[in-house]
């Protein structure tokens, strides 16, 4: 059995360790060349911090989280972030939900430094590293990890700030009730569903951002309201304002208003904005449906009834059928741009 400091690891710890090793290998191929350009000293901490502050990322996360990020990024106190320190930050021991947010911020900051002196610097709404092996590229669909890793790439600091705010407002309440690992399943499956839906509707368009995952959180909330409808309405008319505000109808109204308003904005921007970038509406819809379908079997149910168990299996089957169909579509459809094997 694998051990750590003389202690036998549990199956959950072994799985987490394997995830770290996989992540370390992926990060090495992508970020080691970037840090190599800056020499053995690494990237100046002040430059790294300045990027976070100037791009507005600091306003989207608690200050203690940002301080933790910067402190952990400069463990030896030399005011530089080396490749080794960056890797240690990315593969640390935080809960995966918090780690995912830190990874988003760190990758954004690294690419912001990389693009600073290029013709495509990071601004409020521009600056996306289209050359990154993380972004979804229709010419690189054979690199399957891109259908998930695109969530770490953002176009401008407003994009990442909006996604981080979405994650905290919608994700943290779910984590408190349903535990972070259930929420991560919903989130990551929403990211994949978003990219698969995008790949079938916008066959020639790149995709970046975590909107698929964010909308999956909305879908997860909707699923939780549906399966816990009766329990959430317990004594809502007893005069308690708090109980009323937490009731199923109020939650459902807020979620529909939030999802409807943001979707309407996305549709408007998709058909009115000029330029080479477009909002991926299908990625939003794919993520929302994934969260709704998987939220029923994955998230906690206060009192699981027999019909809810059956519904959970049905919605899981629908999600898996969609994934299978999307994979076949990506394999057989002939109108994609030619594959770039380089």
3D architecture notes:
The protein is mainly alpha-helical and 342 residues long. A hairpin with a 2-residue loop joins strand 1 and strand 2. It has 2 domains: 123 residues, no CATH class; 214 residues, Rhomboid-like fold (Up-down Bundle), CATH 1.20.1540. It has 14 helices and 4 strands.
Compute the CA-based radius of gyration.
21 Å
**SSE ordering:** EEHEHHEHHHHHHHHHHH
Please, how many domains? 2
**How many β-strands, per DSSP?**
4
Cα separation of the termini: 41 Å
What's the CATH class label of the largest domain? Mainly Alpha
Q: Averaging pLDDT over every residue, what do you get?
A: 78
| Total number of helices | 14
Detail the poorly predicted runs: 1-7, 55-62
**Helix content range of the residues, please?**
55-70%
**Main sheet characteristics:** 2 strands, antiparallel
The shape is globular
Q: Topology of this protein?
A:
Elements: E1 3-4, E2 7-8, H1 11-37, E3 43-44, H2 45-54, H3 63-73, E4 80-81, H4 83-90, H5 96-115, H6 146-149, H7 157-178, H8 180-201, H9 211-227, H10 229-232, H11 241-245, H12 248-272, H13 281-298, H14 306-332
Antiparallel strand pairs: 1-2, 3-4
Keywords:
342 residues, mainly alpha, Rhomboid-like fold, two-stranded antiparallel ribbon, 14 helices, globular, disordered N terminus
């Amino acid at each position: 059995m694998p051990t750590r400091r003389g202690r036998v690891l549990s199956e959950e710890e072994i799985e987490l360790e394997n995830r770290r090793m996989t992540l370390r290998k992926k990060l090495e191929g992508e970020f080691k060349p970037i840090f190599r350009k800056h020499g053995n000293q690494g990237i100046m901490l002040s430059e790294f911090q300045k990027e976070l502050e100037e791009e507005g990322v600091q306003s989207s996360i608690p200050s203690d989280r940002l301080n933790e990020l910067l402190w952990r990024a400069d463990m030896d106190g030399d005011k530089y972030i080396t490749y080794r320190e960056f890797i240690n930050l990315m593969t640390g021991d935080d809960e995966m939900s918090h780690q995912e947010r830190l990874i988003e911020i760190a990758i954004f900051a690294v690419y912001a430094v990389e693009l600073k002196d290029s013709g495509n610097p990071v601004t409020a709404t521009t600056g996306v590293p289209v050359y990154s092996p993380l972004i979804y590229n229709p010419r690189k669909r054979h690199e399957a990890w891109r259908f998930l890793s695109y969530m770490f790439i953002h176009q401008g600091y407003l994009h990442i700030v909006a996604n981080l705010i979405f994650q905290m407002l919608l994700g943290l309440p779910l984590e408190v009730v349903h535990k972070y690992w259930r929420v991560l399943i919903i989130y990551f499956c929403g990211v994949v569903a978003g990219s698969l839906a995008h790949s079938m509707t916008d066959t020639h368009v790149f995709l970046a951002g975590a909107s698929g995952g964010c909308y999956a959180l909305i879908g997860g909330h909707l699923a939780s309201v549906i399966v816990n409808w009766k329990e959430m309405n317990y004594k809502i008319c007893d005069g308690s304002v708090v109980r009323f505000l937490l009731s199923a109808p109020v939650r459902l109204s807020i979620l529909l208003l939030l999802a409807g308003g943001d979707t309407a904005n996305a549709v408007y921007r998709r058909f009115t904005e000029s330029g080479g970038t477009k909002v991926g509406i299908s990625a939003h819809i794919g993520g929302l449906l994934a969260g709704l379908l998987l939220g029923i079997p994955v998230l906690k149910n206060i009192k699981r009834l027999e019909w809810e168990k059956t519904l959970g299996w049905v919605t899981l089957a629908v999600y898996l059928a969609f994934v299978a169909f999307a994979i076949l579509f990506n394999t057989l459809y002939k109108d994609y741009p030619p594959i770039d094997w380089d």
